[in-house]
Every structure is written in structure tokens, then in C-alpha cells.
TrEMBL record:
<dbReference type="InterPro" id="IPR016181">
    <property type="entry name" value="Acyl_CoA_acyltransferase"/>
</dbReference>
<protein>
    <recommendedName>
        <fullName>N-acetyltransferase domain-containing protein</fullName>
    </recommendedName>
</protein>
Length: 209
């Protein structure tokens, strides 16, 4: 599963930005303590996912489709497998399923995929709970504005509540075409890029856009 499904799928979907477990880590920390699930079409395994049972939580970890074939994503094989795994967990009396995580941007495809299951978004229970990514722009450039505008972020307030922050500027309204509503997220607010980037150098004259 690791070599023929997970690795080629991550390479096909993320290229040089692959984020996953090394093979030795996956073998010792996951495969020896986990449960692989497969989706078959006729006699061929076309999708797989590795899970671990931690108390009453089924943690869904490494997933992929055969040889990273995008056709298996288009025909819904991976989505069907997730549904079947969660149905199995329900039938076994397992209280919770954890979909692992994604980067804190609602524009990310992984967030959009997992949002289809209507999960509850929470701060991780692991050591990542105190490892929040922090964006610190150093210049007010068009590239910085484009990134912040196109990637509404899930942010955390001093009380520990999760929100979505939409950035906008004079010529571009907030990206409300990117839906945020999900259990665990308290609400959304808007922040003008001029306010966020006030006082930073502006090496390229982008006229506030």
C-alpha cells in the first residue's frame, strides 16, 4: 500500500511539496500498529488507507489510490473508501474517527475534501496543539497580497476559539466563494489588507491591489 498507493498519490497530487511519513517511520510507527483498509474493484485493490485505533478513536493516516491514478479520484474511489471505513467504525462501536489534519487554509483541496464529511474542526490532540503556523509578512507586495487574499485562514483567538479570516482590499471583495462553515469554527470575519500590512515597505507600486 505504501509504495504502490500512498507514495505515488502524494507525488501526483503535491509534486515537490509532498508532506508524509518516511517509509521507515510508516513501517515501525504505523503499519505494525495499524489496520490497512482497501477498496476493491473486481479483484484489484484500487484504493487504500491505513488507520490506527487509539482508545475509542480511529485515526485515519496514510491514504492513496493505485499508482496515484487521478482517474480513481475522479470516479470517487477514495471518497467511497473513507465512507466505508467510517461505516465500519460505527458498526464496531468506535466513538470517533479522526481525519488527521490539513493546513489551516480553507482554499486547500485537502480541507475541502475532508469538509465533505461534515467533521468537527479542532486543535490537534498531539504535540501539534502548540505548534501554530504564524504568517509574518515582511513587505507589502502584490505577491503577498495575492497569497493572503486567495488563502482565507483558520485563525485562533486568545480564548482558543477558531475563526476564519478573509482578507480583502480596495479592488477585491472577500473570497466568500470559499465556504468555511464547519462544526468547531465559531464564525468568520473580514480584515482589510491595508490594515494588516500597514507600515510595511512597498517595493512594487501595486496601487493598493
Amino acid at each position: 500500500m505504501y509504495d504502490r498507493m500512498h507514495v505515488p498519490t502524494m507525488a501526483a497530487r503535491h509534486g515537490g511539496w509532498v508532506r508524509s511519513e518516511r517509509r521507515d517511520v510508516a513501517e515501525h510507527a504505523l503499519f505494525r500498529r495499524g489496520m490497512p483498509f482497501f477498496l476493491r474493484r473486481a479483484d484489484e485493490r484500487i484504493a487504500g488507507v491505513l488507520c490506527r485505533l487509539e482508545g475509542d478513536v480511529l485515526v485515519i493516516r496514510l491514504a492513496g489510490v493505485l499508482e496515484g491514478d487521478p482517474g480513481h479520484y475522479r470516479d470517487g474511489a477514495q471518497l467511497v473508501l473513507y465512507h466505508l471505513v467510517m461505516r465500519w467504525a460505527t458498526e464496531e462501536g468506535i466513538a470517533h474517527a479522526e481525519l488527521s489534519g490539513s493546513r489551516p487554509f480553507i482554499s486547500e483541496g485537502l480541507y475541502a475534501f475532508k469538509r465533505k464529511f461534515r467533521p468537527r474542526i479542532v486543535v490537534p490532540r498531539t504535540h501539534f496543539a502548540r505548534k501554530h503556523p504564524v504568517l509574518i509578512p515582511r513587505q507589502d507586495t502584490l505577491e503577498v497580497r495575492n497569497f493572503l487574499y486567495d488563502h482565507p485562514a483558520i485563525t485562533i483567538d486568545p480564548a482558543g476559539e477558531l475563526h476564519v479570516t478573509y482578507l480583502y482590499d480596495r479592488d477585491r471583495p472577500p473570497r466568500m466563494d470559499l465556504p468555511w462553515d464547519c462544526s468547531g469554527i465559531t464564525g468568520a470575519h473580514e480584515l482589510h489588507l491595508d490594515d494588516l500590512l500597514a507600515g510595511l515597505p512597498r517595493p512594487d507600486a501595486h496601487d493598493g491591489r
